[in-house]
Amino acid sequence: MKVFIMRHGEAVHYAPSDEERALTSHGKECSVIVARACKQQGYSEFDKVLVSPYLRAQQTWAAISSEFSSNDVVTSDDITPYGQAEDVVEYVSAIAELENLESILLVSHLPLVGYLTAEFVGDISAPMFPTSGLVCIEYDVERRQGEVLWHIHP
After folding, report:
1. How far apart are CA 95 and CA 130, in angstroms?
2. What is the SS3 assignment for 7?
3. Residue 94's pLDDT is what?
4. Which Gene3D superfamilies does the UniProt record give (predicted)?
5. 3-class SS at 104?
6. Could you tell me the maximum CA-CA distance found in the chain, to the nearest angstrom?
7. The CATH number of 1-150 is which of 2.10.25.10, 3.40.50.1240, 3.65.10.10, 3.90.79.10?
8. DSSP letters along 31-78, please?
9. CA-based, 20 to 30 A from 88: which of 48, 50, 63, 76?
10. pLDDT at 117
11. Strands 48-51 and 2-7
12. Could you give the CA distance from residue 116 to residue 87 in angstroms, rounded to a whole number?
């Protein structure tokens, strides 16, 4: 299956709480540019999309959702900045088997996006993600092993 991991777009630095930090217009633009580049790679549909409940992640998905199609978009409290990568990978693996998923997109945050990438691939250090960064991983659910196919940065 293909696992796509995207970091939210650039967000404002100050808000009443971290959860309420909104995307900047530049963040929206860069996220759309990355989404279009993903489409040029041949990927415009996801079987499932998981989005962090934080405002900047929700706004990132709202900005890019017109570029993609998915009938199953879920807000997931497990993919906030300090979510547990091991638990998320186990969850994704379980629903991939149960729902016979061929693709999933996770819209999340640092540091989790790096830890998720390392956990899905194994034997790599957690990579840094720029805002709006997107990675595509070919993931073998049975073997619990993946390989980075490509990454896109704005």
Report:
1. 28
2. strand
3. 97
4. Phosphoglycerate mutase-like (3.40.50.1240)
5. strand
6. 43
7. 3.40.50.1240
8. HHHHHHHHHHTT--B-SEEEE-SSHHHHHHHHHHGGGSB-S-EEE-GG
9. 63
10. 98
11. unpaired
12. 10
